[in-house]
Protein: cysteine desulfurase
Organism: Cyanobium gracile UHCC 0281
Amino acid sequence: MLTYLDHHASTPCDPAVLAAMAPWWTQNAANPSSRLYRPALEAGAAVDIARQRVAEALGVDSDAVIFTSGATEANNLALRGVAEAALERGEPRRRLVTLASEHRAVLEPMAWLERHGFPLTVLPVESDGRLDPERLAQALGPDTLLLSVMAANNEIGVLQPLADIGALCRQRGVLFHCDAAQAVGHIPLAMADLGIDLLSLSGHKLYGPKGVGALLRRPGLPLAPQQLGGGQEGGLRGGTLPVPLIVGLGAAVAGALADRQERAERLGALRDRLWKELEALGGVRRNGQPLHTLPHSLSVTVEGVDGTRLHRQLRRVLAVSSGSACSQGSPSHVLAALGLDRRAAGATVRFGLGRGTTAADVDVAVAAMGDAVAELRVPL
Ligand SMILES: *Cc1c(COP(=O)(O)O)cnc(C)c1O
């Protein structure tokens, strides 16, 4: 069996989450919008409990929560919804600002908005993956409508200085959206304290089901719905609420919060050992600022080996991610933003540890990397 070390791509659904979801698939099929009879009211109450759990995890009231199909949709709703609302009220601020290392689910809607009349600034990051606050201060002008900066990067795990960014946004009257898909349930995040106006999260990145997520919005912040329909979610996201998935998201958030600290400490120690042993192989570089990184993340680049051959070897025993989208053969835009060239990006390995990861899994990873490096490295 493959050793799964790709928890940034997705996490296994917690069995307790699955159990919490089960009756909402098989026993109570009522639509919470129906409201006329008891099962519908019970479904509505279950959704309310989940909404409360998600809100509490981010330190906000439950009216901030808009359930979506995932973080991709939440990002689209946040960015396109803010832009459309600004257009409708004739807001003179139009500029959008983001980072080169953001997820495609931010960069693509941003590029779409740029083509539709919203000037876009894409800021570079430092070679350690972090945003330079000085550079940001220069970029946020009186024309800036919104800034989008992720909490934790999905490829290198690097954490951005959210509190500083949020304070700057407030000072400049700029809305702050944060794609926190990799951070919620993994590190503490208090939305209001950090000055975040809009925050995206995803169920399947925190041991919940795939196909559900949420956008948290500071109540009152103008947002135009991007999916029109039956008026669900305060008219901001039409569509029948997927009760089982929402219940699962609530249970997953609660479960992730319950063991977060213990998990972070345990996985942080395993990750540190993994890095130490990989470093000892020689010619292995670590990507991203190590002091400001998710505890379960490690991205390394192996010098002097061919990336395609490296990953062909590794995938016999490990499920890990590479630094390039193999189908297109193009290097990851995140690694490119750090300054890695095509070759280095290809020979990059992302390890994502998770709740089920053991010390034995780390041993497997170290052995696989050691074997691959020994076999593939071209003697100088
Ligand atoms: C996974 C991920 C997404 C996409 O989330 P989905 O729920 O799969 O749509 C967006 N942003 C980041 C940073 C992610 O890691």
Summary: Residues 70-72, 103, 105, 150, 154, 179, 181-182, 202, 205, 213 surround pyridoxal-5'-phosphate (CB under 6 Å). The mean pLDDT is 96. The chain has eleven helices and 15 strands. The longest strand covers residues 297-302.
